[in-house]
Amino acid sequence: MNEEQKALILSSSSHFLPPQGVKLSYGTAGFRADASLLSSAVYRVGILAALRSLKTQAVIGLMITASHNKISDNGVKIADPNGGMLSQHWEPFADALANAPSPQDLIQLINDFVKKEDIQFNGGRPAEVILGRDTRPSGGALLKAATEGIASILGAVATDMGILTTPQLHWMVRARNKGMKASEKDYFEQLSSSFRCLMDLIPSEKSNRKGSNDKLVVDGANGVGGVKLEVLQKQLNGVSIEIRNFGEDGGVLNEGVGADFVQKEKVVPNGFGSEDVGIRCASLDGDADRLVYFSVAPESNSKIELIDGDKILSLFALFIREQLSILSEEEDVKNSRHAHLGVVQTAYANGASTNYLKQLGLEVNFTPTGVKYLHEKAAEFDIGIYFEANGHGTILFSEDLKGWLEAKTKELSSKSKGSEIEKASLRLLAVSELINQAVGDALSGLLLVEVILQHMGWSIHGWNELYHDLPSRQLKVKVADRTAVITANSETVVASPPGLQEAIYAETAKHPQGRCFVRPSGTEDVVRVYAEASTQEAADNLANSLAKLVDQFLGCSKS
Ligand code: G16
Of ligand 1's atoms, which has the minimum distance to the CA of residue 388? Predict the structure, then answer.
């Protein structure tokens, strides 16, 4: 770094001093905290984004969002050149950057890192960062801080893409770096055209069937997702979606609404009730990277039948497997190709879903919580389907398989036009276009669910009957220091504090079909508790006992 560069960072960083006594960690999905604490961290992430762009010589994304968190929180995360999460290798630098106490320490840190990573400031393409934000009121000021951080790297260019869903920004970064059209209009165009293509491929006897194609009602979490879905809907011929909780009628972001609320509380979001019994409903989270479905339980004002990420995964897996099996009937053995299909879950996956997927003969893999881990694992397959129970997931297609499918459809369109094999191959290609390849995306996931339900001729109840979830319960426990909980084996056991796991084993043994774990959240200042068992009462008891244990071992009270 030359002196001019150092002086520029020194002067601009003096406007963004970190709050005293606050330690931030890049966490499950970037930095998240009360918005009032974040301007220095966001400014510094702007610097990191520009350095990452110089290092990779590609466009980098910077998203201001705290997704499912309450409205007073905010956050920031980076999208790498492929549209995925920031390389984990850079996370310690992000942590150090955010926590550097003074501008001088910051300069020292950056200088050392730039040397270590051999980042060149001259000779290559200048840094380029595209930015987006969700609808939080603090977003505008934080975006400005990020832009100043980017501008403190000489020659760096920052482009504000406006209010977006998180997956839209990830999609744009990937598209830009692949040399594809990358505007918001292009995003909507790609989703709607691949959706229409899949709808056209629905077997005619299924597309006329009643029950599968009636109204869908979507809870927009009072965030950005509902607004964007409204735009997208106009481009989908003949699909009827009613959107509620737009955030424009006094509703508060994620408060009593949204995918996180629906999945954790298992009750209807605001704006839904007994008049919706029998209707297919879906819920997005605050930045539209999560999706769950639900139906209002009969004879109840508030209870729901939840269709979570595990069941979305199962639906997707069934559909993909069906298309692959049609393709494998190709007579010309020389031309056929075995596609390796794998699915990825976390410890939150309901045990019944894992059993179901295994019974289908699928390879089920586990990673710790966090899309960054699931995505990496899913990318090892020709087709990798990953979902967290909370509704965050997607389907990844390897470049190799996509190339093969493209060649195959071309060949089949002249050799056996209209054949089942051609249709299966066209469907897979269209899915790879529809479903976001960069990150989990509630809007593209929702369109794929809608297509598959029609393809199968299923109502939401038919889908829900695939398997029956084991009763489960999730709780949050506030503790003095959540980082004192260290886990192992994809978060299924506690390695520290000593003795806690033994106590958990003893509690679990008291509950038939009991399974449970505790882990520190990477997005909220809490320890999370998950328990499942053969009855709801047992799952609740087990979760409560675990919460007490966490309390005993780590102090403070349950929330
Ligand atoms: C983020 C991550 C998800 C993770 C969730 C909760 O979601 O992207 O992978 O499941 O946080 O993480 P934790 O339990 O560590 O708080 P979102 O939708 O909030 O961005």
Answer: 10
Given the CA of residue 526, which atom of ligand 1 is nearest to it?
Answer: 16
Q: Residues lining ligand 1, judged by CB closer than 6 Å?
A: 28-29, 67-68, 285, 289-290, 369-371, 388, 390, 392, 521-524, 528
Residue 49 alpha carbon to ligand 1 centre in Å:
21
Stronger pLDDT, 211 or 43, i.e. the higher one: 43
pLDDT tens for each residue of 461-510: 999 999 999 999 999 999 989 999 999 999 999 999 999 999 999 999 99
How far apart are the CA of 411 and the centre of ligand 1, in A? 42
**Distance between CA atoms of 462 and 486, rounded to whole angstroms?**
40
Residue 208: is its pLDDT beyond 70? Answer: no
According to DSSP, the β-strands at 527-532 and 291-296 are unpaired
Q: Which of 523, 525, 559 to mutate to test the pocket of ligand 1 (most atoms within 8 A of CB)?
A: 523
Nearest-atom index, ligand 1, CA of 374: 9
How close is the Cα of 55 to the center of ligand 1, in Å?
27
Q: Closest ligand 1 atom to the C-alpha of 28? A: 15
CA atoms within 13 A on the CB side of 99: 13
Segment 365-382 shows an average pLDDT of 96
For ligand 1, atom 9, the nearest C-alpha belongs to 370
CB distance 48 to 93 below 8 Å: yes
- What tokens were used for 7? 């002086």
From the CA of 308, how far away is ligand 1's center (Å)?
15
Q: pLDDT at position 210, please?
A: 45
What's the mean pLDDT in 540-553? 96
pLDDT in tens, 85-107: 999 999 999 999 999 999 999 99
Q: Are strands 59-64 and 73-79 parallel, antiparallel or unpaired?
A: antiparallel
Is omega for the bond preceding 126 within 30 degrees of 0, making it cis?
Answer: no
User: Mean pLDDT, the chain, as a whole number?
Assistant: 94
Convert 139-167 to b/e letters by CB count within 10 Å (16 or more is b): beebbebbbbbbbbbbebbbebbebbbbb
Domains of the chain: 3-163 (3.40.120.10), 200-305 (3.40.120.10), 310-464 (3.40.120.10), 472-558 (3.30.310.50)
Q: 57: CA distance to ligand 1 center in Å?
A: 29
pLDDT surpasses 60 at 29: yes
As a whole-number percent, the residues of the chain with pLDDT over 90 amount to 88
Please tell me the pTM assigned to this model.
Answer: 0.95
Q: What is d(CA 137, CA 131) in angstroms, rounded to the nearest whole number?
A: 16
Going by alpha carbons, the residue nearest to atom 20 of ligand 1 is 67
Mean pLDDT of 357-367: 96
Q: Which residues are catalytic?
A: 67
